[in-house]
Design a protein that fits this description.
208 residues; alpha/beta; 6 helices; 37% helix; 25% strand; globular
């Protein structure tokens, strides 16, 4: 289930975007995408603000809950509902506003900029479509659920476990003098099932 958030005045054809995403989802064998509806971002200024996207995400969340109550067959076992938020540009304020508004009601949100959405809808851009769909697919899974299972055990032997590490940080010019980082460790079994995930955030730089 997907609910779209669209900037006011946008000429983006949401039905066409959804159709293209479904076309590529079928090629990846990711199942059927169900469009719940769309919410327009209302703003009193020339450019949408953080609060505008916060309000839109909350409204989208209410619409998702209403839809699921009306159709009990479409439950979380068929994939967690996703809010696909179309941002006017790479504005970190509108990005943060949408995420905070969605998380206030514990809904999943995927942000893409309008230029990317238009490239998918109007040009059928495969790279953008696959990247967006994989993000949607991962966020639709239950917490800790593996996105795929290997047909044969890695290394040819059952009983093995594997560790993966990832450390990320935002560019210092985005944050001034403040550093921010997150470190993630994941342990999976020989067929890719998630056994353990730990996340550590730090305000003083990279930490593993």
């Amino acid at each position: 289930p997907i609910h779209y958030i669209v900037p006011s005045g946008s000429r983006l054809d949401i039905d066409k975007l959804h159709e293209k995403l479904q076309e590529f989802a079928s090629k990846l064998q990711l199942g059927t995408l169900v469009m719940i509806g769309k919410t327009n971002v209302h703003t009193s200024s020339k450019k949408p603000t953080r609060n505008d996207y916060w309000d839109a995400a909350r409204t989208a969340g209410f619409e998702i809950d209403k839809y699921l109550k009306e159709d009990p067959e479409l439950d979380y076992k068929k994939g967690r509902p996703i809010i696909l938020s179309i941002l006017p540009d790479k504005d970190s304020e509108t990005y943060a506003g949408g995420k905070q508004g969605a998380h206030a009601d514990n809904h999943c949100i995927q942000n893409i900029i309008q230029r990317t959405a238009s490239a998918i809808a109007d040009q059928g851009n495969k790279f953008y479509a696959y990247n967006t769909l994989l993000q949607i697919y991962l966020k639709s899974l239950e917490r800790g659920e593996a996105p795929w299972i290997l047909q044969k055990p890695a290394g040819g032997a059952r009983g093995s476990a594997y560790l993966g590490y990832d450390v990320s940080r935002r560019r210092e010019e985005e944050l001034g003098t403040k550093k921010e980082a997150a470190a993630t460790i994941s342990m999976v079994d020989s067929q890719g099932r998630n056994l353990l995930t730990k996340l550590h955030t730090s305000q003083s730089g990279e930490t593993l």
